[in-house]
Amino acid sequence: MVTVNPFHAIRPRPELAKDIATLPYDVLNSQEAYDLAKDNPYSYLHIDKAEIDLPKTLSPYDPKVYQQAALALKTFLEKGWLVKEDAPLFYLYELTMAGRSQTGLVACTSIHDYLSGHIKKHELTRHEKELDRINHVDACDANTSPIFLTYRNQPDISSLIDRWQTDHAPIYDFDSFHGVIHRVWLIDDQDTIRAISSYFHDDVPALYIADGHHRTESAVKVGQKRLAQAAEPAESRANYFLSVLFPADELAIYDYNRVLNVPIPENLLEQLSVSFDIAEISAAHNKPEKKHAFTMYLEKKWYQLNLKQDKIPVGLVDSLDAAILQEQVFSTIFHIHDSRSDNRIDFVGGIRGIQELEKLVDSSDFNIAFALYPTSMTDLLAVADAGEIMPPKSTWFEPKLLSGLFLYDLETNSR
Fold this sequence. Notes:
This protein is of the alpha+beta class. The protein has helices spanning 17-20, 30-37, 45-48, 63-78, 111-115, 127-140, 155-167, 190-203, 213-229, 268-272, 321-331, 355-362, 377-385, and strands at 4-5, 9-12, 82-84, 90-97, 100-110, 119-120, 142-143, 147-151, 172-175, 181-187, 207-211, 240-247, 253-254, 256-260, 276-281, 293-298, 301-307, 345-349, 368-371, 396-397, 407-409. It has 2 domains: 4-252 and 398-409, no CATH class; 254-396, Conserved hypothetical protein from pyrococcus furiosus pfu- 392566-001, domain 2. Strands 1, 4, 5, 6, 8, 9, 10, 11 and 12 form a 9-stranded mixed β-sheet that branches. Helix 4 (63-78) packs parallel to helix 6 (127-140) and helix 6 (127-140) packs across helix 9 (213-229). The two termini are 35 Å apart. This is DUF1015 domain-containing protein. InterPro entries: UCP033563.
């Protein structure tokens, strides 16, 4: 059973929410962040990617960047663009994209649940990416963006959330990137708050990281550091980190595709035919339609690659499409053995469309592309439950949670 608590949120003034909220730091490079924020003093990117306000010659991981982030957060609070809630509350965060909605509970979750395995992961993390967010959270003395968590649907929780949304007006309601509508409700009734916490404690055996493994590791490690220094660790806010919790049946996983810049063997199709049935297809039918089916773009032609029945692995992780492609194509044919670090491979989120693969290959930055069928939520939960790890870049969730709508103050330092 899991701990889910209300919290004293730092959040935008309602009239500034749309101007402040922005795409998360890890889907933008520094130049993209600069371009988005340069004419918007309210943009949360001034906090989340503070290098945009420093000389471009400076590394985005320089200590001055984290100092600038802390200064920007202090400025946003002093100017009243961000305000801190007087009482610990819950919030509901609904995102609607292309007519499909998902509603998450914004809350604090326990670092002890993570350390004990009640908040489960399915990806490995990279130390350098962890260190970036550790330094950012440490300098700002706050969880500066939430972790995207999921759980198996519980009818009592869903019913309570539905009723609250029906009976109350949202405090934020705006559209933003990719036409997504963002709406937020504040839950300030103490009986409702207690009921939500009780439902999670009594009826939800585990939470799962959907997106944000690096943010989770970073938040937990900063929390552990704070607890080691705390005079009264049991009372410290560092026991918790900021999360948004969505029922799994409301989430959508998009495809996460691959592009490579590698020497192409003359007998590539022959080598692929060992594991796949291959057919040339038209561009109009270039998206895989089922598990264990792939499409490949090479020299302005699309090919269908259907995995042969006797080549389907039996293991939970080995049978994932990302693992099959890695083992039976990238490693065997192109000698890419570590896709986390090999610079000959890049990953393209499905939100960018299948045409993005053609664009990248035709530009000569890459010379071959592979499209995958999306991983299922069932597979993700099963892998996490088994304590296994998915291959890198197996899942792409849309819509993305915007950053800047919620922060969690660790209150170690006075502001």
